[in-house]
Amino acid sequence: MKNTLIRQHSGEFLLLLATISAALGWLFSKNAIAELPPVAFISLRFSIATLLFLPFAIPQLKALNQTQCKHAIWVGLSFCLYLFFWVLGVKYTNELGKGAFLLSLAMLAAPLIAWLIYKERPIRRFWLALPVAIIGMYLLAYGKAQSGFALDSLFFLLTALWAAIQFVLNSRYAQSIPVLALTTIQLAMVGISSGIYSFFFEDFPSVVSSITWLWLALSISIGTNIRFLLQTWGQKESDLGNGALIMILEPVWTLLLSVVFMAEHLSVLKISGMGLILTALIIYRLKISK
Q1: What is the secondary structure of 95-149 as a DSSP string?
Q2: Residue 1 lies in a domain
Q3: Tens digit of pLDDT for each residue in 44-78?
Q4: Which of 29, 110, 113, 118 is most open to solvent, judged by the fewest CB atoms within 10 Å of its CB?
Q5: Range of the domain at 191
Q6: Distance of CA 60 to the CA centre of its chain
Q7: How many domains does the chain have?
Q8: pLDDT, tens digit, for every residue of 83-110?
């Protein structure tokens, strides 16, 4: 009975571990880009992660057909834009918790993207959750900027848009593409494209401290390889709705880490915004109606 229950919910458990790894990745990345150029950091992080996966992924990669390769590349391209906006948001913020909650709006944007691309109409309770999320986004994103969104908030909202697209595509194609092959192609696309951008538009420092290399190593091993393998595998074993529910926990873990390690201030406005976003996500997943 116990083993059957574990097998039935293996996807959800894998996604839970992925959210913890992702939250740690926020902290590791913020420390790494204190010295490293942000896009160069992304290139190094995902290129090395690709090389770590590659020896194990070669058999699956060789078995892919042309259609599977094309789909994996599409997922990788959306992932490139997602990471580009994300790392700029991390660079310009000292409030990782706020950024993570804004990024969690991707879970509500995902049904809209699926409706637009695949004609999958959102369930009724989505429309109940959406206005709550919008109010929470407004309170959280405005923050201290009285005349408009803060720069980091704009980057995180753009990240949320592309994260939603990437989540929908990944959930769709993970069903037909081997996990390791799909993950490796995604990471490779990010490493190559961000490396090209960094080569032309960023200056790499002549000296980088050993602690920064340590943060990079942790970002690669825990925040990248382990996180994305768990997430892709978890999405393969669970449906889009259950995956979206589990991913709610990522901003919670990130907020706790940011408060403990970065002394992030929790104002009434910020708490209210976070609370409304979390409430919207929970409303969306409560099975009170079809």
Answers
A1: -HHHHHHHHTTHHHHHHHHHHHHH--PPPHHHHHHHHHHHHHHHHHHHTT-SSS-
A2: no
A3: 999 998 998 899 999 999 999 999 999 999 889 88
A4: 118
A5: 9-285
A6: 24
A7: 1
A8: 999 999 999 998 999 999 998 888 888 8
